[in-house]
Design goal:
single chain, alpha/beta, Nitrilase/N-carbamoyl-D-aminoacid amidohydrolase, 8-stranded mixed β-sheet, 6-stranded mixed β-sheet, 8 helices, binds the ligand NC(=O)CCC(=O)C(=O)O
């Protein structure tokens, strides 16, 4: 990432297939895709993985399969981030926390391999039985990338809750990062909600969805990089691929200056 006033930040979304209930297979697959991303002609500054990439929605076996306190994931992803000097938003995994509960958790690693932040999904998706097997997180999370950009954490179903995106934007987020396992037939919802979050909050949205099937559920990919005007910079198809694009964080300020939504808010009238 350049550090002058016209920064450009290269993004790589790993729109991967995920093997149901096979953490070891999935880890090897993610490592391969990450290697592919960092050896591409344009090296990414930020890599994003999809939701629940270690297990998929193998919820009936999730207690046996979950990564205990994310130890294994943290170890290898952190080593990768350090080795390649790249920021990694490590999608989300099934994480067994010290309280014994299983959480849908994302970790963010900086270029030195340090865990910059972690976020556990706060809205559980009943249509995929999350509430029967998982515990909900309780804290919105904002983190910095390269000391220059602020990003809000969000996981899949969270994008249906505009309050979360708005809260993160008010706290300073220039972008919303969204690992997902969002299936057919709701492509229209996926694209519309992502664009709405970008437009209403005048921020970038980086959304990485999986492809393939998990049981009887089919996932359509269409990972997206959307700018603060709501323009789509890059969008995946429905097969495995690495979706790439370049963003310019100073555009956030420009758009917010042009249409001063944040100055024009009337929060006292909304509740
Ligand atoms: N994994 C999820 O949270 C899926 C959310 C989803 O599909 C939706 O329609 O919302």
């Amino acid at each position: 990432m350049s550090t002058d006033s016209s920064q450009s930040v290269n993004i790589a979304l790993l729109q991967a297939d995920i093997a149901l209930g096979e953490p070891e297979v999935n880890r090897r697959h993610m490592e391969q895709l990450m290697e592919q991303a960092v050896t591409a002609a344009v090296k990414p500054d930020v890599i994003v993985l999809p939701e629940m990439w270690n297990t998929g929605y193998a919820l009936e076996q999730i207690h046996e399969l979950a990564d205990v306190e994310g130890k294994e994931t943290k170890e290898w992803v952190s080593a990768f981030a350090r080795r390649h000097r790249v920021n990694v938003v490590a999608g989300s995994i099934a994480e067994k926390k010290a309280d014994g509960g299983i959480y849908n958790t994302t970790y963010i690693f900086d270029r030195s391999g340090n865990t910059a932040a972690s976020y556990s999904k706060i809205h559980l998706f009943r249509l995929m039985d999350e509430e029967k097997y998982l515990q909900a997180g309780s804290e919105p999370v904002l983190f910095e990338l390269d000391g220059a950009m602020k990003a809000g954490a969000s996981i899949c179903y969270d994008i249906r809750f505009p309050e979360l995106g708005r809260r993160l934007a008010l706290a300073g987020a220039d972008m919303l990062i969204v690992p997902a396992e969002w299936p057919h037939p709701r492509l229209h919802h996926w694209r519309t909600l992502l664009m709405a979050r970008a437009i209403e909050n005048q921020m970038y949205v980086l959304a990485c969805n999986r492809v393939g099937t998990g049981g009887i559920t089919e996932f359509f990919g269409h990972s997206m990089i959307i700018d603060p005007w709501g323009e789509v910079i890059a969008e995946g198809g429905d097969q495995e691929e690495i979706v790439t694009g370049t963003i310019h964080p100073e555009l956030v300020k420009e758009v917010r200056g042009r249409i001063p939504v944040f100055e024009d808010r009337r929060p006292s009238l909304y509740l």
